[in-house]
Hints:
CATH topology of the largest domain: Spore Coat Polysaccharide Biosynthesis Protein SpsA, Chain A
Shape: elongated
Low-confidence stretches: none
Number of helices: 10
Largest sheet: 7 strands, mixed
Order of helices and strands: EHEHEHEHEHEHHEHHH
CATH architecture of the largest domain: Alpha-Beta Complex
Helix content: 40-55%
Amino acid sequence: MDISVIVPLYNEAESLPHLYEWIARVMKENKFSYEVISVNDGSTDESWDVIRQLQGDKAQGAKGVVRGICFRRNYGKSAALYCGFKAAQGDVVITMDADLQDSPDEIPELYRMITEEGYDLVSGWKQKRYDNALTKNLPSKLFNATARRVTGIQLHDMNCGLKAYRLEVVKNIEVFSEMHRYIPYLAKNAGFTRIGEKVVQHRKREFGTSKFGLNRFVNGYLDLMTLWFLNKFGKQPMHFFGLVGSLMFFIGFIAIIVVGSMKLYALAHHVQAMLVGVNPYFHISILMMILGCMLFLAGFLAEIIIRNSPSRNDYLIREEI
């Protein structure tokens, strides 16, 4: 099979028939064998009924297969993509949103970039957007600038839903929590470094309303920090917690020696000095030593947990001869 198209959706019953018809037309024109995997993320409208109807519609053509996955409740886009990736069988996997803002006409060029130019992943870039400039465009630019700096991946629109992947990529990454925003970073961390970008058309939403609020930008920054930490210290947490903890303990220990020495010097020279117990530097020093010990122990316990993890020696092997 040439292409698997994965469509995560939530309450998009009105858009689905138009999207399926559009995808089928593009696939037929380019003579692709394909499957469309719709992942219904706990929709409360008739989305699943529409998918059932489309699945039984033979008008999609002999080379096209319609498949559906339905969650019992809303789990989020990452969960939908995870299940879609697990079910995908095509040589190239395309992800796109169900709201008709992503154009299926981009699929042939995305497929060509993967199969002919050798990219592992190609991300869409909605250079001209039709979203609200204040609530979406500006925060998106700030978000992507931060993501480029932290991840080292020079993509203008990392969170674009329209992406193409080599099948091997989606089978070797795990999308969880709300990490769908950083799939290129997950791929890079897994060793898939040929990551490209393509300017794609952004269309105005025809039906329904957006399912994402401003909280996604706050959550996005927190998830980015999580991924950065896991990539850098995930296998060796003691290198972070042990270093920071030891440094804090050492500084606190030196500080408490200085406080004690100043008190002894004052007593030896019969100079009035503040009681050690009421000296704020004494309490700060003790606090730093306690925090240093706690961080060191956190790193030590994390190392023990990782040592007993069944995935501690999971490495991606590209080839054996």
